[in-house]
Amino acid sequence: MIRPQPVTLEGHGVRLEPLSKDHESSLRQAASDGRLWELWFTSVPAPEETGQYIDTALAGQKDGHMLPWAVRDMDSGAIAGATRYHDIIDAAGRVEIGYTWYARRFQRSHVNTACKMLLLSHAFEKLGCGVVGLRTDQFNFASQRAIEALGAKKDGVIRHHWPRRDGTVRDTVMYSVLAAEWPDVRRHLELRLKNNATQ
User: What is the pLDDT of residues 130-149, one digit of tens each?
Assistant: First the structure.
């Protein structure tokens, strides 16, 4: 049985801070770097929606099916974006990692690999999860490439699965990492972080 609780996770140049209303201004600034809310296939809030975005995440935390974080880059001290566990299924030992986005200047940097290392490590090594899932919109090709680069396996596509912000309904591409696969995925991520640090 797993019951994720708010916790600060830090390492590899990033710190995951339990999301709070105190992060509203910083998240608004992060989303503005690249006007990320204009990407119709993502969950990035528009500036005026940032407060509601945080409220919804914290309501999910209270209900037990989400655990959200703000992502801080330790070199600059800036909030780089946000991520969370969601669709937490206690009885199945399953969490998903999602609602992940970063300011444009932190994309294609060490930040995503570092965050996934921290989140996967916590899920498998502290919470005892049997599986960690990841999902993305069928048209978010950059996200699909990033998930596959982590070492997650593609489970399939759920057709006509989830409403987008604009009222259309997406097909969802599903991925996962099993607990038995984690040691190899961890070695892979450690190598990626090491190579990034030496560049």
Answer: 999 999 999 999 999 999 99
Place of tokens 């299924």: 89
Task: Answer whether 165's CB lies under 8 Å from 137's CB.
Answer: no
Question: What value does the mean pLDDT of the chain take?
Answer: 94
Sorted by sequence, the CB contacts under 8 Å of residue 35 that are 6+ apart come out as: none
Contact 82, 101 (CB under 8 A): yes
pLDDT score, position 41 = 80
Backbone φ, ψ for residue 92 (5° rounding):
-100, 0
Burial class (CB in 10 A: 0-12, 13-18, 19+), 179: middle
Going by the DSSP 8-state scheme, the letter that residue 157 receives in this structure is E
Contact 14, 111 (CB under 8 A): yes
Measured CA angle at 191 (ends 16, 84), to 5 deg: 25
Residue 191 has pLDDT above 70, yes or no: yes
Q: What is the pLDDT of residue 198?
A: 58
Gap between the Cα atoms of 80 and 85, Å rounded: 17
